[in-house]
Amino acid sequence: MPGATTERVLSEPQFAALVDALAADPERRKELVGLLREDHPHYRQRAAATIVRMRGWVLLAIARGEVADDALIFILEELDTGVDPYLVAAAARALRSVPRPTAALAPFVMRALGNIRYRDEPIAFENYGEYAVSPTGTSAVSELLVTLRWLGPHARGILPELEPLRAPNGGLPRKLRIDVERAVQAIRGPAPGDEHGTHSCCGTTSNGVKSISSWPSNSRRSTERIESITLQDHKGELITFKEFFQGQPSIVVFFYTRCDNPMKCSLTVAKLARVQKLLEAQGMVDRVHTAAITYDPAFDLPERLRIYGQDRGVRMDAGHRMLRVIEDNDVLRRHFELGVNFIESLVNRHRIEVYILDAEGRIAGSFERIHWDEGQVVTRAVEMLKEKECGSRIQA
Amino acid sequence: MAKKLKTAKRTAKKVSSRAAMSVATNVDKTAKQRVAAITSAPLAVVESDKDMQAMLAVLGNTDEPIAVRLAALQALQAASFSVVAFESGRGDYVATLRKVATDPDPELRQRVLGILMRDKDGFAQKKLLDGLKDPAKALVPPEKALQLLSYDVHTDAYEVARDIVKKPPNDDAKREALRLLAADAKAAPIFEKVLRDKKELRANRQIAAAALHSLDPGKLQQQARKILLDKSDYDDIRATSLVALQQFGDDEALGKDKALLKSVKGFSGGKTQAKYKQTARQFLSKYSP
């Protein structure tokens, strides 16, 4: 049948039943992680609030068993940038099913505490889609404090941030201050014998979770299908993918102006501005292009792109542009395997994603899901410049 | 001396807040007295957990007079803007709001749902959507539900809003459905149609013009020109079209558009209302050779 999808559209109760069935089957538990990908067909045409309920249920299902490495990045992502209390609470609970607590996890929990404490609300986990109407159950802050307690001495590094929350004027209600005290006591316990250090380099936590990927030159995806895609920039000028992205390395971020999570799109574009400053300081700003491409081209017209970039200090000129795709947005999306989904024309959920393109416009590296370091991104882009120069020397 | 004065003032304020809260929560006082007490010390709820819990109890108690409950809600809502000071009570506050969202009193329900929707609360969204899909479950009228749902562009109301535009239960619902759809770029054709339909309510046509400007300015320019060339269309709609062209149109193209200029000249005289004549004359002074 033309236009038919291979995925059956599930109602929410059906989705919940599927998740429960997968969780209960040891042979199929690993499929739960796939349900956390933003671009999964189950999330198409769903409201953001619906996706919160669905993803939360998946995280809770994952929490019922041992958390595998490929699931951990999703949990850390929610703790790192999540602003919905239900998801943050579910992620905090899921983290406690990681087989080996390490010090690298503590900063994520503490960051989540900072993100969520003024947005907290009562949470109910017993049934799918349930909303708490009584304050007597759990909450995001409560779950995070229990997780800090679970981390125990591995969380020593965040003790200076945690201890002030014990104070009566620290802001937390009395019942949660008791949880803070318990966490502090657990953290002050005897040091663990098997600690392997804190956050290691290259975007890998000491639990082995990778948020940074790179592809050697001989394995990079060809840009043939996207070269002729037309983009429009913040001034209304049209340019093809090939014209802008081939000839020099590029740093590309994805965003949209109606993102209501300040730790995702707004921060990503503000960080792009910092990347540009780093490039400038290194004398590279004319040799590496930067671009912010919107997920929402129908709404993010040139004027909106321009104002959004301007408000965040983004440099905008011939080599540095805010862009939207005019046609074939789906083709670009598939090429980058973007972590995004939609309800009608609106984004309903997306991840943080930054790409390094080589001088041929091919994806050479990516930084995904959790916060990325501007210096590391610039370093990777400069490596592409050196790769290009080496290639030119060889050809000569 | 100044320090003693400051301390004395703070103490007096605390005593006054405590006294106010004592009256506010006293069921033996009249509703009028209690409302006055609450409004005299609106931030008292963040000064102690006990006062916060007392005010939440008043809000959640259906036996309390509705005027007192509404005053309690107002005080709690005002206090919630002090995000840091309110932190310790926020969880209880949200739980109480959700409980009161299905209250027997319609005004209280509506206000509470409005507060929850400004926070993009999933519970409130679900209740409002359920009510739009099944009127037996509706907690507020459909136009109000649509208005509250539009606080979050990521909500799942677009399909039901389109159905309401096609088959509106009342004029207000259609108007709010159009407002909600203004967030959806795919809805531009709906707004073109509404803007050009002279049988459509003028308020809806104005909403359509604004929505089209946001979603597809080029289309608005095209439609604005057609409207201005149509002498039978309403003055206010033609004036809106004039403003759209003047502020956002292509100056060079407008200056060369003889048919348009002729039409605007006609609009600037005759039976056109004075305020719209002025708009037309401004346009002509800018673009006429």
Folded structure, characterized:
The complex is a heterodimer of chains A (396) and B (289). With 396 residues, chain A is an alpha+beta fold. Helices cover 41% and strands 13% of the residues of chain A. In chain A, the strands form 3 sheets. Chain A has an 8-stranded mixed β-sheet, with helices on both faces. A two-stranded antiparallel ribbon of chain A has the order 1-2. Chain A has a two-stranded antiparallel ribbon with strand order 9-10. Chain A is globular, with a radius of gyration of 22 Å. Chain A starts with 11 loop residues before the first helix and ends with a helix. Residues 1-7 and 196-204 of chain A have low confidence and may be disordered. Helix content of chain B is 73%, strand content 0%. The longest helix of chain B is centred in the first third of the chain and has 23 residues, at 2-24. The termini of chain B are far apart. The A-B interface holds A 46-50, 52-53, 86, 117-122, 129, 131-135, 139, 171-174, 258, 260, 296, 298-299, 301, 343-348 and B 49, 83-84, 87-92, 94-95, 98-99, 119-123, 125-126, 152-156, 158, 183-186, 215, 217.
What's the pLDDT, averaged over the residues of chain B?
Answer: 92
Strand content of chain A: 5-15%
**Helix content range of the residues of chain B, please?**
over 70%
Tell me the distance between the termini of chain A.
54 Å
Low-confidence stretches of chain A: 1-7, 196-204
If you average the pLDDT of chain A, what whole number results? 92
Strand arrangement across the biggest beta sheet of chain A: 3-12-11-6-7-8-4-5
